[in-house]
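Page header: ASSEMBLY MODEL / two components / 674 residues total.
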Amino acid sequence: MNLKKHENNRVLSLTILVIGIFVLFLSVVISIRFGAANLTYHDVIKAIFEYDQENSAHVIVRELRLPRAIAAICVGAALAISGAIMQGMTRNPLASPSIMGVTSGASFTIAIALALVPGISYLGMMTFSFIGAGFGAILVFGISSFSKGGITPVKLALAGSAITSLLSSLSTAIGLKFDIAKDISFWFSGGVSSVQPQHVYFALPFILIGLILAILLSRSISILSLGEDVAKGLGQNIGLVKFMGTIVVLLLTGAAVSIAGMIGFVGLVIPHITRFLVGTDYRWIIPYSAVLGGILLIVADIIGRMVNAPFETPVGAITAIIGVPFFLYLARKEGRGL
Amino acid sequence: MKKDKRFKPLLITIIILTLLMIVVSINAGQIKIPFSTVFETLIGNGTPQNELTIFQFRLPRILLAILVGIGISISGAILQGLSQNPLADPGILGINSGAGFTVVLYMFFFQGTTFFTGWLATFIMPLTALLGAFLAAFLIYSLSWKKGQVTPVRLLLVGIGINAAFGAGLIIFQMKMEPIDFTKAIIWLSGTIWGTNWTFVWALLPWLLILLPIALYKSKELDVLSLSAPIAIGVGVPIEKERRWLLVLSVALAGACVSVGGGITFLGLIAPHIARRLVGARHARLLPLTAALGGLLLLSADTLGRVIMAPMELPVGIVVSILGAPYFIYLLMRNV
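Prediction written out in full:
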């Protein structure tokens, strides 16, 4: 009986996942079709399969809309998976790349890179972004673990918010000093509107590797999320799992920030919704987070284009508006309950 | 007892330091004016050009920095006292961003009208900011309210959330603004003493003259509130009622200051902490020293921001954040 219920759950989870992928595909089509210049579905299909450089509609699809849609999916998936892994490893419901200083660390080092190496290559910028992601995470974790009373969810959130305001102030100062304030404010407001196709295709492999590693790690993370004692009792090499998990988080978040700058709340909200849908098994949570994160960001981007046309509203502002009520709900529980 | 004796000398020292800083600040900036010329101009023997620079640009800005510093740090001290929360600060709690949001809305809807450019605007602006500050405070307080009480931790977390929400709202409205107003709003938000003329001094001064004495008058209630709740009830203080009044006071101070000083975070955190270390936790001594320190700190930060990257100007809010965030982190590590 139990087994049958389990079997049913798996079928249900799989069905929802397939629906999710279908919705994602649909959003991509909508995202490509609508915008400042309205195209027809015919144009979209033609542009993808029979590309014609002379046709302006085709160029729009290939050079602007498609990279943008792919960027949104990649960034959303990467941030959501990072959040899921962080929450699973630390058993902290408030853990997420933006709250724990990872995204602001990456943006900060990008600011430094823009200031010190004008005209830096995209690979260089991504390297800086990876380093910065690690730097931010180390700062926040270091602060909260060396403080009296050890790491608590609340302390992590507070330390993260302090580090974020410190690093963004420093970046603003760098921006003013080197006269690159405008470039830097792009990274801090976060968005996929002016994304470069070659950047997306360059970052894509990193995100795919991160995704595969995350799926490989998912079983271990499920066990770790039961608590370190349990994981140890089951014979797990906790140090190795945590190390690998951290690497995956830095890889994914670093790549995401190098594409789209700081986008908050995706990594916080999505894993919670996923857990609500599929329970505590990270073998399900991680692919689900990827799909839902992609949907959230691409829909937020479509809303950002529509709500205030012809101006673009940064996608980070939209995700914040969706995410804040959620954060407040968690805050009222004072970070308990995962 | 020892700390009692320290109070007066300390207060005098800080005031002297502030006076020194005023002299340094008059001297520093794009147009360097030698000390002797400053002195001559002050007693009325300067050239018209120096008079213009000193009386119309430098002095009002210096006074504003001091006033804003006083207001924000007192607001922080009251917040910390009433919430028994050493990490409270109007900026961290999101009160500043609430005020910032309504000010940007105001800039957006009234740009180009006489409402925006006339002298009346300088007086309406603080009111607008006040409205936003109260809106934010109300949201934070009511959302942290659970089962008849507000815990310090919940207050901070909810504050961070509210901060993010107003921040996102700001970005959305900024996008609709004219580029010039947009730049103005950005600079304003990162915290800067932008209204460098006497009108702004006159707009802010009455608020402080009314609110600061009330804060001092309430210092005994603040002392009692800093004790644990049962003791406060035992002494006969209606806790929640007092808390609410003090919150209104603190928010009013923060809102008025934000309208001229922009979003300055961490100052309301640092000044009361340093003061508490120097003279102890009794508010009758703590509040005056906090005020003096706040004025000195903000003036120093503003001067530093003007000098450090000259001819560029670093907004004072950025300077305060760079100095204040590490202090916040230090406090976070020390407190359980």
